[in-house]
Every structure is written in C-alpha cells, then in structure tokens.
UniProtKB/TrEMBL annotation:
Gene designation per UniProt: apt
InterPro entries referenced in this protein's UniProt entry, alphabetically: Ade_phspho_trans, PRTase-like, PRTase_dom, UPRTase/APRTase
HAMAP family documented for this protein: Aden_phosphoribosyltr (MF_00004)
Upper classification of the organism: Bacteria, Pseudomonadati, Pseudomonadota, Alphaproteobacteria, Sphingomonadales
Top-level EC class as recorded in UniProt: transferase
Recorded GO CC terms: cytoplasm
Task of the protein: Catalyzes a salvage reaction resulting in the formation of AMP, that is energically less costly than de novo synthesis.
Protein's organism: Croceibacterium soli
Designated name of the protein: Adenine phosphoribosyltransferase
One Gene Ontology biological process: purine ribonucleoside salvage
C-alpha cells in the first residue's frame, strides 16, 4: 500500500481531547492488517537506512511500531517506559506536556555506550516527548541521530526541534493543523 492509501486509514476525531483539536487516531490503521503491515514495511526500510543497531520505542504507541520494526530488522527493542513500570534501577527524565508533565524511564543496562539507537513513536507534534526520549537515551550513552514517526504534525514544529538537537526526523506522512 502507498503512503497515501495508508494515510486514508487514519481516522480524524474532531474536538478531541479539546475543542479545536483534530485528533489523528491510528487505531483504525493498526486494526487494518494489510495497512499495519505496509506501515511497518515503509518504516522498516527507513530504519534500515539509519544504521541503528537497536530501536527504542516510547510508551505506549511507540511500542507498537518500534517493536514491529525491530523484529522485522532483527534488532533489539529498548522500551522507554512511563514512570514506575520497570522492576530495576532506572534513568529517568521529566518533561513538559501541554497540560502538565510526564516522566520517561529506561533500564540503562539495555544500552551500550556509543550504540546508535533509532527512536520511534507514532506521532511527532511539539517534539517534547521525542526530545525527552532522545535525551534519556543519550544519558545512557546511546547515539541518537534518527527518529521515525508514522505521523508528523509540522505546524507544531516538533520535527524542527529534533533537527536542532541533531536528530534527523522521518515521518511516513504529515497532517496540517494540530
């Protein structure tokens, strides 16, 4: 399936989670077997070009795409978890959200110093979560030069913030607005 055909599988939910927001709902994409498989095919090809030796996915939807890409390429998967979910000593980073704050944590034993790791999430909007994930991986010693997303919301500027941090963003497709 082409990126245009895949984009058509994304459901837009108006006024969620707040009035004026057009929420891009990927559940309709991942529920479509051929569409989900084709999405992973496209993303795995981009991932292969990154030279990464492992894939890190941001909880929760980054797990869906990141783990599938890692499996497709025979690479390890590094989960970036919400606070308190890992049973071992962790590194953590707090970051701002539009309506509050959040924390990501990582088991640092999953990362080797200097190891190139690809960051994956379903969507890049303002870039806050992706930048936090990259910084956390870098604190653990990883090299984070590339990030992949299914959707980019370019009007919110997140991809530009990643580029400014030395990370090349790639998205399967974008949606105008937010």
């Amino acid at each position: 399936m082409t990126p245009g055909e895949l984009k058509a599988l994304i459901r837009t939910v108006p006024d969620f989670p707040a009035p004026g927001i057009a929420f891009r709902d990927i559940t309709t994409l991942i529920a479509h077997g051929p569409g989900f498989a084709a999405t992973i095919d496209h993303m795995a090809e981009a991932a292969r070009l990154s030279g990464a030796v492992a894939v890190a996915g941001i909880e929760a939807r980054g797990f869906l795409f990141g783990a599938a890409i890692a499996a497709r390429l025979g690479l390890g998967f590094v989960p970036l978890r919400k606070a308190g979910k890992l049973p071992v000593a962790t590194l953590g980073i707090d970051y701002a959200l539009e309506y509050g704050s959040a924390r990501l944590e990582l088991d640092p034993t999953l990362v080797d110093p200097g190891e190139p790791i690809l960051l994956v999430d379903d969507l890049i909007a303002t870039g806050g979560t992706a930048l936090a994930g990259a910084e956390l991986l870098r604190q653990a010693g990883a090299r984070v030069d590339h990030a992949l997303f299914v959707i980019d919301l370019p009007d919110l500027g997140g991809a530009g913030k990643l580029r400014a941090a030395g990370i090349a963003p790639w998205a399967l497709f974008d949606f105008a607005g937010h």
